[in-house]
């Protein structure tokens, strides 16, 4: 039912609905060249070489980087991580969060503008779009109603989406290749023998890449990304951001190149709106700091080119701080305020945690031992002369070299370790990046000790065979030995 305006005239329901919901206007970013455009190109190439190339690297006759969820092992070059190494994942996540806080405090959403996967794939998809359909105005005309659907329009659209889907498919395939050996995955794909979960995730990530980078684009940065929402509480007046110099640029207005704009009461901004046309999120940087700005610097390159054409100094839009704009100070002066308390605190935490992380990795013992008592048979008498306790010993070799392991028990007199067949254990061979679950019997002579629970310990000594050398690894695990009444 339409509502009534103050004057008594009814308001159409369409107007009411439009006022409640923001209608998305498709953004057609204009291509731009310059220093920051080159940096974006370098980062796109570097990140994609890393992402697409890592799964194909080999290390010790296996994939160099593989997160094998089925076997519950993470291979990162020469490092093999097990579920027991979850502390490393925790430290890595904490370090990533602190690094994000530090980068934001220093330079805002710099990660978003240059290395975020959403930004990187949007750049790739927009590059394809420009190559197929043309630059900004050609794409606007192509999508307009004045260009009817015909053979050429269908050909351009199909070509663009075919290339988008090709990259999206290869991206999804590569992503799964981090969790399934990529050569095995490729062979299964060629022979059409992918498993149901592999097929699902391949389709899911391909569709997500195609949809996010091809259609949603800035909507992900503006509405879906949580980083955009909480970055405003991490920046201050000394954070370097893409900033429009209002003191120098206002009041803006068009003018002839030869005109004295100072005598006309105009600032340096010629109001060409090219800074808006090149923005991938479609914002006007001249309106001040906005959470939608991803800090890509495209508007800086565009504005510098315009300033060069009209013979004005560059830097009307630049990376600087709010304090520097207010004080009309240089960037050299603004850099002096970088080392402020929050930056120093973040840096100190990152340094301490990163040092602990690296030291722990370097000194990590690849020999892991877990001792579990058999709760079904706590203790029993054997042949009237010995008391026997049953244990299950899990030996894990977290290195990529074979180990020869010896186990001894100590803590009580005359302790002997036997295997499930009743024979004394001499040496156990544990293969690279593998584990063995060994049921053992530990016995002591009856009458040596009174009944009760006695603490004992297992001394595990392993020889890690690295080429012609043998590195000794040791572990001591505590347990209890029960002597019944």
CATH superfamily of the domain at 367-483: Immunoglobulins
Helix content: 40-55%
Runs in which pLDDT lies below 50 for 5 or more consecutive residues are: none
User: Could you report the average pLDDT, rounded to the nearest whole number?
Assistant: 88
| Distance, first to last CA | 88 Å
CATH topology of the domain at 367-483: Immunoglobulin-like
Number of strands: 18
Give a short synopsis of this structure:
The protein has 17 helices and 18 strands. It has 485 residues and is of the alpha+beta class. Strand 3 and strand 4 form a beta hairpin.
Task: Please give a structural write-up.
This protein has helices spanning 13-20, 35-53, 86-107, 110-114, 117-133, 136-143, 151-176, 182-190, 196-216, 218-224, 226-230, 246-249, 274-277, 298-309, 322-327, 331-335, 341-362; strands spanning 3-4, 10-11, 58-59, 62-63, 65-68, 73-76, 79-81, 241-244, 317-320, 367-373, 380-382, 386-397, 403-410, 416-419, 428-430, 434-445, 452-466, 469-483. It has 485 residues and is α+β, with helices and mostly antiparallel strands. Strands 10, 11, 12, 14 and 16 form a 5-stranded antiparallel sheet that branches. A 4-stranded antiparallel sheet has the order 15-13-17-18, with no helix packed on it. The chain has a 3-stranded antiparallel sheet with strand order 5-6-7, with no helix packed on it. The chain is elongated. The model has no long low-confidence stretch (mean pLDDT 88).
């Amino acid at each position: 039912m339409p509502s009534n305006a103050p004057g008594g005239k009814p308001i159409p329901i369409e107007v009411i609905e439009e006022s409640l919901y923001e209608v998305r206007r498709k953004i057609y970013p204009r291509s731009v060249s310059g220093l920051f455009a080159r940096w974006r190109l370098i980062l796109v190439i570097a990140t994609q070489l890393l992402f697409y190339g890592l799964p194909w690297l080999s290390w010790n006759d296996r994939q160099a980087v593989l997160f094998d969820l089925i076997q519950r092992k993470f291979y990162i070059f020469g490092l093999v991580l097990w579920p027991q190494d979850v502390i490393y994942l925790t430290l890595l996540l904490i370090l990533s969060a602190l690094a994000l806080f530090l980068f934001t405090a220093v330079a805002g959403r710099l990660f978003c503008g240059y290395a975020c996967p959403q930004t990187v794939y949007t750049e790739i998809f927009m590059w394809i779009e420009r190559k197929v359909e043309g630059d900004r105005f050609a794409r606007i005309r192509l999508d307009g109603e004045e260009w009817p659907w015909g053979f050429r329009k269908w050909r351009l659209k199909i070509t663009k989406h075919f290339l988008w889907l090709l990259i999206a498919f290869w991206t999804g395939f590569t992503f799964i290749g981090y969790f399934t050996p990529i050569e095995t995955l490729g062979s299964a794909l060629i022979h059409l023998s992918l498993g149901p979960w592999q097929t699902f995730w391949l389709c899911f990530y391909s569709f997500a890449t195609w949809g996010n980078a091809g259609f949603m684009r800035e909507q992900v940065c503006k509405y879906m990304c949580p980083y955009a929402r909480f970055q405003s509480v991490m920046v201050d007046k000394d954070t370097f951001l893409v900033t429009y110099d209002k003191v120098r640029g206002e009041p803006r207005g068009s003018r002839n190149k030869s005109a004295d704009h100072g005598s006309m009461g105009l600032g340096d901004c010629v109001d060409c709106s090219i800074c808006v046309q090149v923005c991938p999120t479609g914002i006007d940087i001249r309106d001040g700091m906005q959470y939608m700005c991803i800090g890509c610097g495209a508007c800086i390159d565009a504005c510098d080119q315009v300033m060069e054409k009209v013979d004005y100094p560059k830097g009307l839009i630049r990376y600087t701080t709010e304090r520097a704009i207010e004080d009309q100070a240089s960037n050299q002066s603004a850099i002096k305020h970088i080392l402020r308390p929050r930056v120093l605190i973040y840096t100190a935490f990152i340094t301490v945690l990163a040092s602990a992380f690296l030291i722990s990795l370097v000194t990590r013992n690849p020999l892991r031992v877990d001792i579990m008592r058999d709760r079904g048979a706590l203790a029993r008498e054997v042949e009237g002369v010995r008391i026997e306790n049953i244990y299950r010993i899990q030996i894990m070799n977290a290195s990529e070299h074979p180990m020869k392991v010896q186990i001894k028990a100590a803590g009580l007199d005359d302790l002997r370790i036997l295997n499930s067949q009743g024979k004394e254990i001499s040496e156990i061979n544990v293969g690279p990046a593998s584990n063995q679950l060994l049921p053992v019997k530990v016995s002591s002579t009856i009458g040596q000790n009174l009944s009760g629970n006695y603490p004992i310990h297992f001394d595990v000594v392993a020889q890690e065979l690295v080429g012609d050398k043998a590195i000794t690894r040791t572990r001591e695990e505590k347990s209890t030995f029960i002597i019944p009444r």
